[in-house]
Each structure stands twice: as C-alpha cells, then as structure tokens.
Amino acid sequence: MCRPPAARESRAMEIVRVNGLRKAYGGRPAVDGVSFGVEEGEIFGILGPNGAGKTTTVECVEGLRTPDSGTVEVAGLDPVADHEKVTRLLGAQLQESELQPKLTVREALELYSSFYERPADWRPLAERLGLVSKLGDRFAKLSGGQKQRLFIALALIGDPRVVVLDELTTGLDPRARRDTWQLIEEVRDRGVTVLLVTHFMEEAQRLCDRIAVIDKGRVAALDTPAGLIGRSTASTVISFTPSGPLDERDLAALPQVASVTTTDGRIVVHGTDETVTAVISLLAGLGITARQLRVSETSLDDAFLDLTEERL
Ligand SMILES: Nc1ncnc2c1ncn2[C@@H]1O[C@H](COP(=O)(O)OP(=O)(O)OP(=O)(O)O)[C@@H](O)[C@H]1O
Prior knowledge:
single chain, alpha/beta, Rossmann fold, Alpha-Beta Plaits, 6-stranded mixed β-sheet, 28% strand, elongated, binds adenosine-5'-triphosphate, AAA+_ATPase
C-alpha cells in the first residue's frame, strides 16, 4: 500500500532527476520535454498509453540512450558519461530476449553476480524470490511468473539503490501479478527506490507513491494516485435503471453533474457526492425508483483517460 504522506514528506533526497528531456527518432519526438524527480525510497510510477515515450525515458535514465537535450542525473551522476558508476547504483530489469534460453537459473545468477565488484549474495535473494527449487531449471522452461522473479533477482544482484522495472507484470496471470506486486513492495521496504513503468492502473494505484502520467512525450500530470483521482472532473459514478421514463436533461441540470449517458435503459451519471443526493431527490419527486442503484468512486482508470484524452 502507499505510505502515508508524512512518511514521504520526511524524505527530501532525489535520487533520479530528469529535466527537460528530449529524444527524437528520425526527427519524430518520442520524449518532448519531460521533467520529474524520484525521491529516494519511493515507488515512482511512469504510466501512459502505448508509444507515449515511457521506455525511451527510462532508457535515458539507464544510460542506454543519449538525450538530444535536457539532463538526467542518477545520484548526481550522468548515466551516459558516468555509465559504469551508474550501473553500480541502478539495477535494470532485463528483457526476455537478453537471457539465453539454455542458461539455468543458478548459472544466470552466478553470471550476473560476476559483473559486479560487490554483488549481493544471490542465495538469500533466490530464497526470498522463491527460486531455490528452480536453480537447476533452464530459463526457457520457467513459467512467466518464475521468469519475472528471476529478472527481479538479476536486477537486484548488484545491490542497487534504484531499480527500474519496465512492464514487469505484462502477461502474468492475476495471482502471479499480485505476488510480483508483493515482491516490489518488499524491494521498496528494503530501502531500494523503484522506478516502475506500467500500463496497469490497478498496479500503479496499489504500488506507487507518486505517478507521472506521460502522454505524447510529455508529462500530463504528476501526483499521488489519490491526487490524480482527485483531479478528475467527476469523482463519483452513479448508475441505475429507472422504473419509469426519465428525461436525461433533468439529470444533467442537477448540481455538479459532469455527464449523463443512457445505454440499454441504464443511466450513468458522473458527478460528485453532492450529485448522489440530488439524483435520489429528483427520482423521489418524480415517483421513480432507481433499480440496481450503484454508486462508485472514480478509479485511476477514469482519471488516466481524463488526463490523456484532454491532449488528443
Ligand atoms: N528505436 C526506435 N526507433 C524509432 N522509433 C522508436 C524507437 N523506439 C521507440 N520509438 C518510437 O518512439 C515513440 C515512443 O516509444 P516508447 O517505446 O518510448 O513508448 P512507450 O510509452 O514505452 O510505449 P509502449 O507502452 O508501447 O511500450 C513511439 O512512437 C515509438 O514508435
């Protein structure tokens, strides 16, 4: 779960700082002036639609790409100029294609340990990540969840201060995804800062202390999950099937209503808490019953669509 704001306020040190980052491919901007700071010890999410520039941004943080302009610092170091030093501070999740299918889990852990001067002991890491019974298994034979666990272990093997996880849970079943979330929280609880790229709202909402929503190469919003939800124009969704004829315009005229839609006889009103009382009073006055009445809070999903659609 997200830590309370008080815990966040006590941290001031930014371990990653991105300022005015720009990167184009063949003249087409992929990242177009992105700025954000990641505080030490937090899980910082980068959320955005396909092609928004998320991976390009984190690849610049990892020193795998050189920015066209702007600056990136990891613990005050330039990831390109000081690549070796940054590699010791920052663990990056591998892509599946980067591990040989015939390598066993043990061989992969030993190989990656050998890349560092002072690696973490891989044995307790393997134990914590539930990989001990898989040490002799070849990478190609592992399930999706087991591969992800191995990737987390390899990202942590250099004992980094920051770990970058890009689409870590894509393709996992719901249980494996939840297990992976728990692991990410454990990593953060050990004091490692996590930079998490994700498409999944639920994942971002559950794990991230703060989220940068990136859209078309720019930061559309940067806030806590609750802060992003609060920015949504409508924070409450009321849906019901009226027992008799009801004019949408009467609902639209109620206080704080952002939108009213009717699909197959079911009415959905987006508004605020105040709207709920107003809808119920209106229906009571008209002698209409609200069948299967549901009232829910706006999700990060809605906020995300709001924030990214504005820019279409
Ligand atoms: N090596 C490359 N050469 C040319 N264009 C690229 C390259 N890498 C990315 N792009 C383009 O840059 C834009 C941003 O891509 P990027 O992978 O950073 O986005 P993303 O937000 O991570 O997307 P996704 O969620 O789909 O992975 C896209 O339009 C993509 O097609």
